[in-house]
Protein backbone atom coordinates (compact mmCIF):
# COMPACT_ATOMS: atom_id res chain seq x y z
CA UNK A 1 0.00 0.00 0.00
CA UNK A 2 1.48 3.35 -0.97
CA UNK A 3 1.43 6.37 1.25
CA UNK A 4 -0.67 8.22 -1.36
CA UNK A 5 -3.51 5.80 -1.05
CA UNK A 6 -3.46 6.23 2.74
CA UNK A 7 -3.46 10.01 2.32
CA UNK A 8 -6.22 9.72 -0.24
CA UNK A 9 -8.36 7.72 2.19
CA UNK A 10 -7.69 10.29 4.89
CA UNK A 11 -8.78 13.19 2.68
CA UNK A 12 -11.87 11.29 1.58
CA UNK A 13 -12.71 10.67 5.24
CA UNK A 14 -12.38 14.38 5.98
CA UNK A 15 -14.58 15.19 3.00
CA UNK A 16 -17.19 12.71 4.22
CA UNK A 17 -17.09 14.25 7.70
CA UNK A 18 -17.47 17.73 6.24
CA UNK A 19 -20.48 16.63 4.20
CA UNK A 20 -22.03 15.15 7.33
CA UNK A 21 -21.39 18.33 9.30
CA UNK A 22 -22.81 20.47 6.49
CA UNK A 23 -25.86 18.25 6.30
CA UNK A 24 -26.44 18.37 10.04
CA UNK A 25 -25.81 22.13 10.02
CA UNK A 26 -28.57 22.53 7.45
CA UNK A 27 -30.92 20.67 9.76
CA UNK A 28 -30.02 22.95 12.67
CA UNK A 29 -30.19 26.17 10.68
CA UNK A 30 -32.39 28.73 12.36
CA UNK A 31 -35.80 28.97 10.78
CA UNK A 32 -37.23 32.43 10.38
CA UNK A 33 -39.78 33.33 13.02
CA UNK A 34 -43.06 34.28 11.37
CA UNK A 35 -44.33 37.76 12.33
CA UNK A 36 -47.47 36.32 13.92
CA UNK A 37 -45.33 34.25 16.34
CA UNK A 38 -43.29 37.33 17.27
CA UNK A 39 -46.49 39.27 17.95
CA UNK A 40 -47.86 36.36 19.98
CA UNK A 41 -44.68 36.25 22.08
CA UNK A 42 -44.97 39.99 22.72
CA UNK A 43 -48.57 39.61 23.75
CA UNK A 44 -47.84 36.85 26.27
CA UNK A 45 -44.81 38.54 27.77
CA UNK A 46 -42.39 35.84 26.60
CA UNK A 47 -40.11 38.49 25.14
CA UNK A 48 -38.19 40.48 27.72
CA UNK A 49 -38.44 44.22 27.70
CA UNK A 50 -35.18 46.08 27.39
CA UNK A 51 -33.94 47.94 30.44
CA UNK A 52 -31.08 50.35 30.84
CA UNK A 53 -27.62 50.17 32.39
CA UNK A 54 -25.17 52.88 33.33
CA UNK A 55 -21.91 52.68 31.43
CA UNK A 56 -19.96 52.69 34.69
CA UNK A 57 -21.78 49.51 35.77
CA UNK A 58 -20.81 47.51 32.66
CA UNK A 59 -18.23 44.84 33.54
CA UNK A 60 -19.02 42.10 31.02
CA UNK A 61 -20.13 42.56 27.41
CA UNK A 62 -21.14 39.62 25.21
CA UNK A 63 -21.27 39.85 21.43
CA UNK A 64 -23.90 37.34 20.34
CA UNK A 65 -24.37 36.01 16.84
CA UNK A 66 -26.09 33.06 15.25
CA UNK A 67 -23.28 30.53 15.68
CA UNK A 68 -20.99 32.33 18.14
CA UNK A 69 -17.82 31.84 16.13
CA UNK A 70 -16.63 33.99 13.24
CA UNK A 71 -18.20 37.41 13.11
CA UNK A 72 -18.88 37.75 16.82
CA UNK A 73 -15.31 36.70 17.66
CA UNK A 74 -13.94 39.40 15.37
CA UNK A 75 -16.14 42.12 16.88
CA UNK A 76 -15.45 40.89 20.42
CA UNK A 77 -11.69 41.16 19.86
CA UNK A 78 -12.00 44.70 18.52
CA UNK A 79 -14.33 45.87 21.29
CA UNK A 80 -12.19 44.17 23.96
CA UNK A 81 -9.27 46.30 22.86
CA UNK A 82 -11.35 49.45 23.09
CA UNK A 83 -12.78 48.62 26.53
CA UNK A 84 -9.64 47.12 28.11
CA UNK A 85 -8.59 50.42 29.77
CA UNK A 86 -11.93 50.45 31.63
CA UNK A 87 -11.62 46.89 33.01
CA UNK A 88 -14.54 45.60 30.94
CA UNK A 89 -14.39 42.00 29.73
CA UNK A 90 -15.73 41.24 26.26
CA UNK A 91 -16.57 37.76 25.00
CA UNK A 92 -18.65 36.21 22.25
CA UNK A 93 -21.30 33.49 22.16
CA UNK A 94 -24.17 32.18 20.13
CA UNK A 95 -27.55 33.68 20.94
CA UNK A 96 -28.65 30.42 22.56
CA UNK A 97 -25.60 30.27 24.87
CA UNK A 98 -25.31 33.76 26.32
CA UNK A 99 -23.80 33.61 29.82
CA UNK A 100 -26.07 34.74 32.63
CA UNK A 101 -23.44 37.04 34.12
CA UNK A 102 -23.41 39.39 31.12
CA UNK A 103 -24.22 43.02 31.83
CA UNK A 104 -24.62 44.05 28.20
CA UNK A 105 -25.38 41.95 25.13
CA UNK A 106 -24.79 43.21 21.61
CA UNK A 107 -26.23 41.32 18.65
CA UNK A 108 -27.29 41.90 15.10
CA UNK A 109 -30.73 43.45 14.77
CA UNK A 110 -31.97 40.34 12.98
CA UNK A 111 -31.32 38.35 16.18
CA UNK A 112 -32.77 40.80 18.71
CA UNK A 113 -36.13 39.09 19.12
CA UNK A 114 -34.46 35.73 19.62
CA UNK A 115 -31.94 37.14 22.11
CA UNK A 116 -34.71 38.79 24.12
CA UNK A 117 -36.50 35.46 24.49
CA UNK A 118 -33.39 33.85 26.04
CA UNK A 119 -32.83 33.75 29.79
CA UNK A 120 -30.07 36.35 30.02
CA UNK A 121 -30.66 37.53 33.58
CA UNK A 122 -30.85 41.30 33.86
CA UNK A 123 -28.55 42.02 30.90
CA UNK A 124 -29.41 44.89 28.58
CA UNK A 125 -29.60 43.83 24.93
CA UNK A 126 -28.69 46.22 22.12
CA UNK A 127 -28.76 45.60 18.40
CA UNK A 128 -26.45 46.64 15.62
CA UNK A 129 -26.70 46.49 11.83
CA UNK A 130 -23.08 46.15 10.77
CA UNK A 131 -20.24 44.21 12.33
CA UNK A 132 -17.84 46.94 11.23
CA UNK A 133 -18.22 50.59 12.15
CA UNK A 134 -21.69 50.44 13.67
CA UNK A 135 -22.40 53.45 15.94
CA UNK A 136 -23.50 51.22 18.83
CA UNK A 137 -19.87 50.22 19.49
CA UNK A 138 -18.90 53.89 19.81
CA UNK A 139 -21.90 54.50 22.09
CA UNK A 140 -20.88 51.62 24.35
CA UNK A 141 -17.31 52.85 24.59
CA UNK A 142 -18.43 56.43 25.29
CA UNK A 143 -20.93 55.34 27.97
CA UNK A 144 -18.29 53.21 29.70
CA UNK A 145 -15.65 55.95 29.45
CA UNK A 146 -17.74 59.03 30.31
CA UNK A 147 -20.83 57.61 31.97
CA UNK A 148 -24.31 57.60 30.57
CA UNK A 149 -27.11 55.14 30.05
CA UNK A 150 -27.30 52.36 27.51
CA UNK A 151 -30.58 50.79 26.45
CA UNK A 152 -34.05 52.05 26.96
Task: For this entry, give a set of tags.
5 helices; two-stranded antiparallel sheet; four-stranded parallel beta sheet; 152 residues; single chain; 18% strand
Task: Characterise this structure.
Strand 4 (104-108), helix 4 and strand 5 form a beta-alpha-beta unit. This protein has helices at 3-28, 35-44, 70-83, 112-117, 135-146, and strands at 52-54, 60-65, 89-94, 104-108, 124-128, 149-151. By secondary structure, it is α/β, with parallel strands linked by helices. The chain is globular. The longest helix is centred in the N-terminal third of the chain and has 26 residues, at 3-28. Strands 3-2-4-5 form a 4-stranded parallel sheet. It has a two-stranded antiparallel ribbon with strand order 1-6. Mean pLDDT is 76; it is low at 16-33 and 38-49. It is built from 5 helices and 6 strands.
Characterize the biggest β-sheet: 4 strands, parallel
Whole-number mean pLDDT:
76
Helix content: 40-55%
CA-based shape: globular
Q: What is the helix tally?
A: 5
Distance between the termini: 68 Å
Regions with little confidence, pLDDT below 50 for 5+ residues: 16-33, 38-49
Query: How many strand elements?
Result: 6
Give the strand order, joined by hyphens, for the main sheet: 3-2-4-5
Structural class: alpha/beta
Beta-strand percentage range? 15-25%
Q: Helix-strand pattern, N to C?
A: HHEEHEEHEHE
Rg on CA atoms, Å: 20 Å
Question: What topology emerges from the helices and strands here?
Answer:
Elements: H1 3-28, H2 35-44, E1 52-54, E2 60-65, H3 70-83, E3 89-94, E4 104-108, H4 112-117, E5 124-128, H5 135-146, E6 149-151
Parallel strand pairs: 2-3, 2-4, 4-5
Antiparallel strand pairs: 1-6
Amino acid sequence: MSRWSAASRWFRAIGFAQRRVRGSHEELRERPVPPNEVEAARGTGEERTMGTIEGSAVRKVVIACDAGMGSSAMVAAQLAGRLKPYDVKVSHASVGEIPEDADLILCQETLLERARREDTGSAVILGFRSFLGDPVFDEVEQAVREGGSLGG
